[in-house]
Automatic annotation (TrEMBL):
Protein name from the UniProt record: GNAT family N-acetyltransferase
Pfam families (UniProt xref): Acetyltransf_1
The UniProt record lists the keyword Acyltransferase: yes
Domain of life: Bacteria
EC numbers, comma separated: 2.3.1.-
Family annotation (Gene3D superfamilies): 3.40.630.30
Source organism per UniProt: Pseudoxanthomonas helianthi
Any one GO MF annotation of this record: acyltransferase activity, transferring groups other than amino-acyl groups
Keyword terms: Acyltransferase, Transferase
Main enzyme class: transferase
Organismal lineage: Bacteria, Pseudomonadati, Pseudomonadota, Gammaproteobacteria, Lysobacterales
């Protein structure tokens, strides 16, 4: 019954796509091409396994990433440095079982080594109270609202200060110790995709 959070594997992208597109109105749909771009460019792209089955996923981008989301752009216009949670999806049969909390603990551990703030949004036109309560319980606060052009979707823009970041920055600067859990994902993906013999 334990929850395992780990980096997504390329062969799981079809399952991730189905999970995303069955999530309902709280998550924007994806196509295979955009999901592939997430796999190649996201700083954080992890899945949750429960009882050996895919239970959810979370995708995130640092503020220095070339991510094309209008919500990401909204934050970038207002904040110099942050880590942005683009989407989190938990399988409907797994909701309420701690998967979302496990993801947020994991992504915060990743982000607080690199960024002073954690950013995300909640769509507020389709019964958002459970999602807002969930984020509030993690210390997020609303810093504004954003109407997503052409989609007719309004988002509550949420931000959380990461209190460990100043200590990490002052102690290690830009040179984190080389440990498996501190390595940047994009570098790991590039290494995995490099042809043998190079």
């Amino acid at each position: 019954m334990s929850i395992v959070i780990r980096d997504v594997r390329e062969h799981e992208l079809d399952s991730v796509l189905a999970l995303n597109n069955n999530a309902g109105l709280a998550i924007l749909p994806l196509d295979a091409q955009r999901l592939r771009r997430f796999h190649e460019q996201a700083d954080y792209f992890r899945v949750a396994e429960r009882d050996g089955n895919l239970a959810g996923f979370l995708v995130g981008f640092g503020s220095d990433n070339d991510h094309d989301s209008s919500n990401f752009a909204w934050f970038r216009q207002r904040y110099p440095q942050f880590f942005y949670i683009d989407r989190i999806v938990v399988a409907s049969r797994r909701r309420g079982g701690g998967v979302g909390r496990a993801f947020y603990a994991d992504v915060q551990s990743f982000a607080e080594l690199r960024y002073p703030q954690l950013a995300c949004e909640v769509f507020i036109d389709h019964g958002a109270d459970p999602a807002l309560l969930f984020h509030g319980s993690f210390g997020f606060r609303e810093v504004g609202q954003h109407a997503m052009e052409g989609l007719g979707v309004r988002a509550s823009m949420l931000m959380k200060e990461l209190c460990s970041y100043p200590w990490v920055r002052d102690t290690y600067g830009d040179a984190l110790p080389d440990l498996p859990w501190t390595r940047a994902r994009r570098k790991s993906v590039a290494t995995e995709q490099r042809p043998t013999g190079t």
